[in-house]
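Q: Protein A?
A:
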Amino acid sequence: MADIPRHQGAIISAGVLLGTGLGGFIDGILLHQLLQWHNMLSTQLPPTDLVTMKVNMVWDGLFHVFTWLMTALGIGLLWRAGQRPEVPWSTRTFVGSLSIGWGAFNVVEGLIDHHLLGIHHVHPGAGQLAWDVGFLLFGALLVGAGWGLVRTGRKDTRPRGAPVTIARKRLATGRA
C-alpha cells in the first residue's frame, strides 16, 4: 500500500471550505435567527425601528451569501476530489477538515466582529465578554480536534471508490 500516492490536500481543502460555510450557517441560523441574540450588524438589540431592522437583514443576508459561497465552493472541490483516484477517501480527514473550517470561521469571525470591530457580540449584555471568549475557545477546540483527526487520517490510504488492487492497476497503467 505504500506505493500508492496519497493526495489529501484535495479532501482537506473541500472539508475546510464546507466547514466554514456550514459553521457560518449554524451561527447565522442559530444565533441570528432562532435565538435572535444578534445580527451581523447589531447596532441596537432588539431593533426598535424599521430602518434598523432592514439594515440588520441586509447585513445578515450578505453574511449568508458568504456562507453559501463557501459551501458551494466546498461541494465543488469535494466533487473534484471524488473524481481523482489518488485522493484517499478518509472519513477522519474529511470530518477533521470540516471541524477545522468551522473552528477557523469561529475564531476569525469572533476576533474580527466581536473583539476588533465590536459590531456585535455573541450574546450582548451582562456577561457578553464571557460569551465572546467562549465562542473563541469553542472555535479553537474545533480546530485542535480537527487537526488531530486530519493527522490520524494520514494512515487512510485507500483511494476513493476503488479497492487497493484496482487503484494499483490504474496507477501502474497510468489510467486515472
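Q: Protein B?
A:
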Amino acid sequence: MPAFDAVLFDLDNTLCRHEQSAETIYFGAFERADIEPVGTPSDLWEALDGDPPPDDPTDYLADGFARVSDQYGVSVDARRLAEGFRETVDYRAVSFVSGAERALAAASEHGPVGLITNGPSSRQRVKLDALGIGEAFDVVVYAGDLPRRKPYPDPFEDALDALDVRSNSALYVGDSVEHDVVGAQRAGIPVAWFADGGEWDERWNEVDPPAYVLDRMGGLADVLGDDASASTV
C-alpha cells in the first residue's frame, strides 16, 4: 500500500464543477449591464491576465472586458460589464465531479485530508457549503488570499505544516498540470493527476510525469488501497 500519511485535494474541476455555463455568465454580464454583446467567453478568458487579485476582482474583470472590446473595435463600459459578471455568477451552483465523494471518503478513511485551492475564501467557502463539505477537511488553504498561489510551493507547504506531514508522505490530487502538478512537484509532493479522460500533452514534456493518472476520481480509492504499480487508474 502506498505510504501516504495525508491526502490533499484541489477543488475546482477536481472535486466539483460549475453548473453555470461560461456562456450564461458571459452574456449574462452584458444583459445585466444593458450592453449589446460582443465577443465570446473564450475572448474574455484569453484577455484576463493571470489569477484575479482577491481584493479587487471587479477591476480585474473590467480590464479583461476592455481588452475584448478593443479587440472588436467597439467602446463599452467595461466596469459595468464586470459588475454584471459578478452579479450573474453564482458560486453556489456547483456539483460534485463523478466519483469525488467516493474519493473523499477513501481519503478520510486513510488519514488527514486537506484542501488547497487558488480561489479566495470569500468565493470558495460558498462552494464548500453548497456541497456540504465545509467541515470535511483537516486543513483548508485558500491560496487566493495568499501573496503567492499555485504553482508556487507556498500553499502546499502551508498545508503540510498545518498537518505536520512530510512532503513525500502526502499525495496531492488535482486536475491542472500548470497549477496542480507543477506546484505540488515544486513542493516535493507526489501527484495524482485527474486527467478526466484526457491524455498527457506533448506541451507538458518539460514537466515530470505525475505519480498517478486518474481517469476517474473514484480511482483514487484504488491508489490508496492498492499495491498496483500501474500509474493509470
